[in-house]
Specification:
alpha/beta, Rossmann fold, 6-stranded parallel β-sheet, 5-stranded parallel β-sheet, 11 strands, elongated
Length: 308
């Protein structure tokens, strides 16, 4: 059976499909249509990925697609699309492009007031469409074990990611400077300097963080660099962001700072995750983050550890 799953979304939103897709190769041929860079990380889980920003896909949203438009995929048996389609235009066009296919179109997200994790919502959507997904089982598994291969090298670097795709989710840069300086005083050093990871949304912060002499800057790494880099992290600290979700799914010890978004819906999935909810920034949050970091350190390096 050939299945097309459509989810045109940002990195973290796309990664929420990973637990449900963890065994997708047993379903037959599964093709994922979504946006970069998210689909790049899902490639190991599916038979193929298609860039939704590529030619043809815009026709799904047209009242009357122009004659001659073709989608990159011709024949499928089943389609599950997670996107907004209040007027049914996408469904109608999918029926035209893929006659005879079983088609399910679902909202991309649960209602914002519904206390269900987005990954579980997506897994249930696939399960209810008839695919052999055991939603609760794959969701629980994603909290106990890494979704992606955690790597075999030694974890050496502490990584700070002071950004995200939404400014309201972020603590101010000054908080991150205070946090990193407190880490230097309180956390025993590992091999190599700590790393400040910045994406395109944080480009304007480059001059500020570049002044930190005792840290390295990694700006906008490509997917081939980011994946192994996070596999080598001894500790990762970040906001509710796509990279934070990726870190958790790779099994890196991950501290996620939530300021505005729902933890019930967006808690990072992984075996070593600590979520700290705080709207205000300041010394109390710095100390709470340090305490969480101690919990991930092995006893010889943990200042709170007292041998009997």
């Amino acid at each position: 059976m050939r299945t097309l799953i459509i989810r045109p979304a940002a990195l973290g939103d796309t990664l929420m499909l990973a637990p449900a897709l963890s065994n997708s190769r047993a379903w037959g041929e599964v093709i994922m249509a979504g946006r970069k860079p998210g689909i790049d990380f899902l490639r190991p889980l599916v038979a193929g990925c298609l860039d939704f920003e590529g030619p043809g896909w815009h026709a799904l949203f047209m009242e009357a697609p122009e004659p001659g438009i073709l989608l990159p995929l011709r024949e499928v048996d089943k389609i599950v699309a997670f996107l907004s389609d209040p007027q049914g235009i996408v469904r109608k066009n999918l029926e035209c492009f893929f006659p005879g296919a079983s088609i399910v179109v679902l909202p991309g997200y649960p209602d914002e007031h519904e206390p269900i994790h987005v990954a579980l919502y997506l897994a249930r959507g696939l399960e209810n469409s008839g695919l052999p997904v055991h939603a609760e089982e794959v969701f629980m598994e994603a909290m106990k074990r890494p979704v992606f291969p955690p790597g075999h090298g030694q974890r050496l670097r502490i990584v700070f990611h002071p950004g995200s795709g939404g400014a309201k989710k972020n603590h101010p840069p000054e908080f991150w400077l205070d946090l990193m300086r407190s880490f230097r005083k309180s956390i025993p050093s590992t091999q190599g300097l700590p790393v400040i990871l910045l994406g395109p949304a944080e480009e304007k912060l480059l001059p500020l963080f570049s002044g930190e002499a005792q840290a390295e800057i990694l700006f906008s790494p490509d997917t081939d660099r980011l994946f192994p880099f996070l596999q080598e992290a001894s500790l990762y600290v970040g906001h509710d962001s796509g990279i934070t979700h990726l870190s958790a799914m790779l099994g890196a010890p991950t501290i996620a700072l939530f300021r505005q978004t729902s933890v019930a819906q967006w808690k990072p999935l992984g075996p070593k995750v600590k979520v700290i909810e705080a709207v205000t920034s300041g010394p109390a949050l710095v100390q709470e983050t340090l305490k969480a970091a101690y919990g991930f350190l092995p006893p010889p390096l943990n200042p709170l550890f007292s041998p009997l």
